[in-house]
Request: fold
Amino acid sequence: MKTTVQQIWGKTVVPFNILVLVCILYVILLFLVAFGAEKRAAKGQLGWLRSPLIYTLSLSVYCTAWTFYGAVGYAARSGLEFVTIYLGPTLVMVGWWWALRKLVRIGRAQRVTSVADLISSRYGKSNALGVIVTVMAVIGTTPYIALQLQSVTLSFAVFANERSAGGALPDLNSTALWVAAGLAVFTIVFGTRSLDANERHHGVVTAIALEAVVKLAALLAVGVFVVWGVADGPSDILARIDTSHFSQWQIKGERWFTLIFLSAAAFLTLPRMFQVLVVENVNERHLATASWAFPLYLFLISLFVVPIAVVGLSALPEGTNPDLFVLTVPLNYNAEGLATLAFLGGFSSATSMVIIAAIALSTMVSNHIVMPIWLSVRKVGATVSGDVRGVVLMSRRVSIGAILALGYLYYRFSGGGGALAAIGLVSFAGVAQVLPALLGGIFWRGATRNGAVAGLIIGFSVWAYSMFIPSFGEGALMSSAMLTDGPWGIGWLRPQALFGIQGLDPLVHAVFWSMALNTSAFVIGSLVSFPGPIERLQGAQFVNVFEHSGTARGWQGSAAEAEDLLVMAQRILGAQQAQALFQAESQGQGRDGYLPDVTADFIGKLERELTGSVGAATAHAMLGQIIGGSTVSVHDLMAVADETAQMLEYSSQLEAKSQELARTGRQLRDANEKLKELSIQKDAFLSQISHELRTPMTSIRAFSEILMDGGDAGDEYRQKYSTIIHDETIRLTRLLDDLLDLSVLENGQVTLNYSSANLNDIISSAVAATSSLDGARAISILRDGGRENLPITTDADRLRQVFINLIANATKYCDARVPELAIKARLRGGMLVVDFVDNGSGIAKRSQSVIFEKFSRLSDHAAAGGAGLGLAICREIMTNLGGQISYLPGQGGGAFRVTMPPIAPKAGAVK
Amino acid sequence: MDAARVLPIVGGGLFLMPLIWTAGSTRQGIIYIFAIWIGLIIAAALLSRILIKEPQSENHGATDLGQDSGSV
Reply:
C-alpha cells in the first residue's frame, strides 16, 4: 500500500487501478445477476423476480447520478430547494389512485410499449404523433445521458487526480467512451433479447434493482459516516446548518412550486420512468406497495443530502466542486472503502439510468421511425417472406448504439461543463411537454390528434427557444445579443423574457410559458377539430379503461386470408408463438389446424399482440397492408356514442320490448277468451249431442220393446212403429255421417271430383234442394240470374253442399217476420264472390268468432235439426276448394260471404 | 378510495406551505418537510393496505392481465 498512498490534501486514497478493477468486478456481477434472472425467468421460476419490492427498486432509475452527486451539490448551492425534485414524484406515487393506476391499466390493456406509443395509440394510432414524441424524447434525453457519462468520468477523475501527482492523468474522454461502449453492450445483450416489449426485461430489471440497493446503501453509508463519524450526531449537524450560508430560509416561492410541478410531470413522462412504471409492471397491485415504498426510498435518499453538503462546505477547501462531495468528503477523512462504495453508488445511478433510457428510446425509435420507414420503403411490405423480427431487433440494437453515441458526442462537444443540476432540469422541462397530451388523452375524451400535435409542437418549440438553446451558454448557439435584445432587436421575443415579462427566474419563465402555451394549444386544437372514427374508439377505450378493458376493434371481417396473417405474425412474433396463437384461436372457434376464421375479434387480438412488439401505429399499418384498410362498424361507433345516447338506446329498446310483451299478452288473453268460449260451446254441444243421441235412442228402444212384446197391436201399428224406428235410425246415421265427413275434410283425405260447371246452375240446384226440405218455413230468395252466370271449375257437389247449408241456416234462423235471403254473386279481383244476406237479426258480435268452429250452435235459437257441424263442414270444404267462407258483418242481417277461385287450384294442377 | 384521492392534495398543500413563510431558518424547514414527508408515507402505506384488501369495486377487470403473453 505504501507505494500507492498519495499525499494530496494530506490524505490516503484508493489506487486508481484497484478502483478500475472493482468497477469491472461490479459490472461482471451485474452481468451475472441479469443473466441469472433471465435464466430463472426462462424456466418460469419468476418468484421474487415479480415481487413488489423489485418493482419499487426498479423505479429508482428516477434517482440518477444527478441525484447521487448533484443533489448534494444542489443543496450546497441553494439549501433545501433540491428536495422539490423528490417531492413531486412522492405526490404522484401517493396519488397513484388518480393517474398511475389508470396509466398502468391502459398500458397493459393496450400493450403499450413506450410513452410515444401511448400517445400515438390514443390519438388514432397516428404515427406522426409517435414520431414527434420520439424526437422530443431523444432531444430531451440525450443531454441527460451525457450528464451520466460526465458524472462517471468526473468521479473517476477524482481518484485519478489524486493519482496524477505520481502518474499520467487518464484521458477522461476515453473513459467516457469506454463507459458508453460498455453500457451499450449490456443494454443490447439484456435489453433486446426478446421482441415483445410486454415481455418484461427480467434481467435488466433485476440488475437495476441491485443497483438501486447499492446506491441507497452507499448514500446512507456516507450520510451515517458524516453525521456520526465526522459530526457529533444530528444536533451537531443542525448547528452546522445554522452557521452555513443557507441557514436563512430563502426559498423562492415560484421556483419551489415550479420544481415540484416539473418533477411530478417528468416522473410521469420521462421515457425511462414510463418504461419501469408502466411497461415493466407485472402486476397492478405492485403499484399499491410502491405508492408508499418508493416515496420512502426517495425520503432515505434525501435524508443525508443536507448533512453531507454542510460538512463538505465546512471541511473541504473553498472551490471544491460540491457536486462531488459524496466522494470527496469520505476521501478527505481517509475512508477509502466508503469512498469506493460511494463511487459504486454513483456508477450504479448513472448506469441504471442510461440502460433503461436506452431501452425505452430504442423501442420508440425503432417502432415509430425505423419500422414505418422500412415498411414504406418495401411497398410489398408485410406479406413478403423473411423475418421481420430480425429487422426490428437489429433496428433496436442500432438505436441503442446510436443513442449512446449521441450522448457521448453531446458530452464531448458540450465540454462537460455546467452544473449537473441545470442539465437535468432542462431535460425535465423538455419531456414534461408530453404531459398535457398524456393526461388529456386518458381523462378527456374530447382530446384530439390535432390538439395533441399543436400542443406538443408549440410547447416543445417554446422550450427549445427559451430553455434548451440558451442552456448551451451565451454565444454557443444563440448570440448574447439575441439573449439580451431578442431576435432582430424585437424586445418581446427575448428568449428569457417572452412578451416583455422580465424578472422571472429563467427556469420558471420557460416552464410557465411552454406549459401554458402547450396546454392552450392542446385544448383549443382539440375543441376546434373533430376526431376520426378510430381516434374516437381509442379515446373511449383509454378514458373508460376501467369500464371495458378490451381493445378497439376497428377491423371488419374481410377477405384477408388467415394464411397471410399467419405468415406475417410468424415473422414478428416468431414461428412458435404465432402458431400457438393461431392454434388457440382456431380451437376457440371449434376447428382443427392452425388457420382460424378471420373474424374482427381475431384481427383485433392479433393487432394487440403485434402492438406489443412493434407499437400500435406500425402494427396497425402492417395489418392494414394485408387486410386493406380498416373500417369502423356502426356497432363500434355506437359503443363510443355518449352515455346519454346509450341510455336512450337502451330505454327505447326496453320500451319496444315492453310493447311487444303487452301485445303478446293481449293476444294470449284473446286466445284464452276464445278457448273459454269454445270450451263452453263444447260442453253445451256435448250435452246437446247426448240429448240428440238419446232422444232417437229412447224412442227406438221404446218402440222396439213394444214390438218385441208382440202385444195385440195390429199390423197398422207395427208398420207405424217400425217406420219411426227407421226414421230415428236415419237421423242418427246423418249425425254420425256429418261427424265423419268433417273428420275426413279436416284431415285432407277427401277426394274431390272436379268438373266444369256454371255458378247459376249450382245455386239453382241448392235452392231447389232446400225448398223441398220437410217443415221448412217459406223464405223468399232474391237472385240476379244474369250476374250468376259465371263459369267455374270445381267440385260442384261439394260447393252445392255449402250453398245448401247456408240457405238452410237462413231458412232456420232468420227471425224476420217476412224472411228474405239475397244471393249476390260476382267476380271481384279474379275471385268468385257469393254473398248470402238475410234480413234477420244476424249473429251477435260475441259469437261471430266461433260460428265456424266445430260443435258451435247458437243456443239462443230453437234447435232445428243439425248438430252445429254445418258451418264447420262448410269452412273445411271451402278450404279444400281453395277458397274461404267468412261472416260478413254490417249487412243488416245474417250475412255470409263465400270466396273461391274460378278454377280450383288442385283442379288446375290435375289438368 | 376517496382518502387515496385526497391524500396527494393534502400532501401537496402541506409541501407548498413554505411558500408563505416569510421568515424562518433552513433548520425548521428541513424538520418540517421531512416530518410531513414521513407522515405522508405512513398514510399511503396504511391506505394501500386497505385498498388492496378492498374488493375491487371500481375496476371489474382482473388485476393481473399480463399473463397471456407467451415466450419466444
